Amino acid sequence: MLQTIKLEHILFLDIETVPEFENFNELSEEKKLLWEEKTQYQRKDEFTAEQFYDRAGIWAEFGKIVCISVGFFSFKNGDRTFRLTTFKDEERILLQQFSELLKEHFSKPQHLLCAHNGKELDFPFIARRMLIHNLPLPLKLNLFGKKPWEVPHLDTLELWKFGDYKHFTSLKLLTNVLKIPSPKDDISGSDVRNVFYNDKDLDRIVSYCEKDVLAIAQVILKLRQEKLLEAPEVVSV
């Protein structure tokens, strides 16, 4: 089934997120209580709500997106190209830009969105943040009333599970076992908050995010048993 999908119909993507505010004390008193309630199970007695706030970026209600990187295949005269680009403005603006891309280039029935663990993280996170900003959901993220087989999303984690719902494999581990060049040679997901707020180095985060997008595309190629992308085929725009 995976082999029947045209690669140029897939938009590969990854997002990077951070806590919505740099410090816990910037939250309203009501939001502080809501954060305390939301994280009580995860924190147990090991951390206070304030100490745990560095992890707020994993929840759409308390985090925000700082960049969305996307990649897509292009075929011309027998040559294969993988084009990468990133939206990295203020959150509302980058969400609008991403939505426009979907509307103009990836809105047809055959088009699919692809991410690693995207069904649990990237796709719902983007949709929730759009609604928080009062933005209309693009067709590919509006899943209300859709049956599971009508959802236009590919998830490399789900594909690797082969129906084993208990199994979680990180993108880093998956690329290792599939002998794909590692996308991680600088920072990790746990570093993004500090790189954004302390180092104020968004470009470093973008580079990290784009490497993930490339890795996801490589996983799809590997699962299709096709030749991996080589450096000259990858273009950042």
Automatic annotation (TrEMBL):
Report the superkingdom from the record. Bacteria
> What would you give as a GO molecular function for this chain, any one?
nucleic acid binding
Task: Keywords in alphabetical order, please.
Answer: Exonuclease, Hydrolase, Nuclease
Note the InterPro entries from the entry: 3'-5'_exonuclease_PolB-like (IPR019288), RNaseH-like_sf (IPR012337), RNaseH_sf (IPR036397)
- Claim: Nuclease is one of the keywords in the record: yes
The segment(s) forming the Predicted 3'-5' exonuclease PolB-like domain are: 62-223
Q: Does the keyword Nucleus apply?
A: no
Q: Which SUPFAM superfamilies match?
A: Ribonuclease H-like (SSF53098)
Q: What is this protein called?
A: 3'-5' exonuclease
Q: Which organism is it from?
A: Salegentibacter salarius
Organismal lineage:
Bacteria, Pseudomonadati, Bacteroidota, Flavobacteriia, Flavobacteriales
